[in-house]
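haha ok so turns out i had the wrong file open the whole time. this is the CORRECT one, sorry everyone. sequence first:
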Amino acid sequence: MAQVPQRFFDALAVRTWCGLSLRALGRAREEIDAINVYPVADGDTGTNLYLTVESAVAAVEAVFAAHELDDGAPGTVEGPSLAEAVGAMAHGALIGARGNSGTILAQLLRGMAQVLTARSEFAHTEGPGLRLALRNAAESARQAVAHPVEGTVLTVASAAADAAADAEGDCAEVARTAYEGARAALAATPAQLPVLERAGVVDAGGHGLVTVLGALVETFTGQAPGPGAATVVHARVEPHEGVASAPSPAPGDEVLAGGCAATEGDRGVARVADRGVATVADRGAAAEADRGADPAFEVIYLLEAGDAAVTRLRQRLDALGDSLVVVGGDGLWNVHVHVDDAGAAVEAGVEAGRPHRIRITHFGHGDAHTAGTGRPPRERSRRAVVAVVPGEGLAGLYAEAGATTLLARPGEPPASGELVQAVRRAHAHEVVLLPNDAELRHTAAAAAEQARAEGVRVALIPTRSAVQGIAALAVHEPERRFDEDVVAMTSAAGATRYAEVTVAEHRSWTTAGICQAGDVLGLIDGDVAVIGADVTEVAATVLDRMLSAGGELVTLVLGDEAPGTVTEHLEARVREAYLAVDTVVHRGGRQGALLLVGVE
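then structure:
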């Protein structure tokens, strides 16, 4: 069904654009993931862009819902202003930005919002205002990147703004011209960036931006731009494996260079360069050759800090790694960097202000192009462990033990798609999945089912705490038969009682009585068992109750906000009262709970 066109860029147009962008990225996500080779071939650019826009959509919908609630009668109010809608869009993208391209897209949306909110006296803007917004978007995104590289999404954004600057007419004409300029720039990216040319692909982030601009055209015209409006490139098309749906055009035929309106057959041959279409294996090999000694971790976090502190942070992070992008302003920033020392990147944020929603991803050594229709570029490992962990300290511990980790931010559990991406990064025939949270059982099950559909043998061990995951990982032996290894790991996890010490956020009923906001809670096997005022006392009581049933090993995982002396006190207590019990202490970082306890 055709979309009802919007005449002006107002709050309703913002809402429509966000929704259309999300749907378009949903359709293009796998294709964009499959051509992602720069800056790191981790195959998640499409997913990251989708999740970024999903956060923007949620923020915009919340603004519209708030206006209806304020009136008390849905549909009877004028709705939010343009400034409120674009401000929500930009803020939602900022706090939900994922990956390098998602962070840049968030800054592009923020750049547009800066222009449009400055025109807050107007209920809407027309063609000239949209042109200014696109220009400021491109310039602010380029300024946010420490070392801009041509042939990337930055180039595509600049081309869109340049094309729009010459457009005369309404918003529909400006959007269409910007889209066509972006398409042409996308087709030229392989000639600007050698890694793209060798892999035979266009830039994945640029492809995502073209998709978003295509949704902007649909917002104002009511129709998605079709192949007739697309920019095409001449390419020598050769027989290739890995794209089952691709047609077989003759040499020299015109081939679509990507875009949101391509047919299924078009998508199959969208990965082109002047020297022909590369196979999936060729793309993986080219990306691996270009990777060299790239940093091992991607670190992303939101940061509350002032401008001066962020300036110093940029300098420090630039010295630590690469792919540095810092976006935001007005005291809230989204920081993205690739580094070898993830802890140092987080510590730099702590010195600059208050980092939260910290996300650390280990790139690993597997090629990301295993989710598409082609064969993997090189042999998979036999077996891998994928684990969800609550803090960067445990992420490092699990990674040292050989696991592929997914960091769960406090209060923001990962989606099944993120777990699937982690399984793909593990690049193994067999995967043991450790959710380490009772609330993630169904999410992990859905991810495991999807991974199995992609040909990976997955066993889900229902670990309910990271300490149970540690116990399972301790007995993991990749050389054992898969079923035997899974049984041993499941048995070790099941034999480990778990507890946590945390602080109550509000007054509520618990299994141990009524707690007040600020009370220290001790939870054993998921239920509140102790309520107190002192962290050390509550932790000691919890430990005594757990050891009353026996145990040989106590694992303590200390969070950043816990008193440093609590583990010393607990270790001394174990030595004095439980002579045959050993104690191991780990630092968990910002893990949500003050203390995690495991007893085996």
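Confidence is low (pLDDT under 50) at residues 71-77, 228-292, 365-378.
again sry for the mixup
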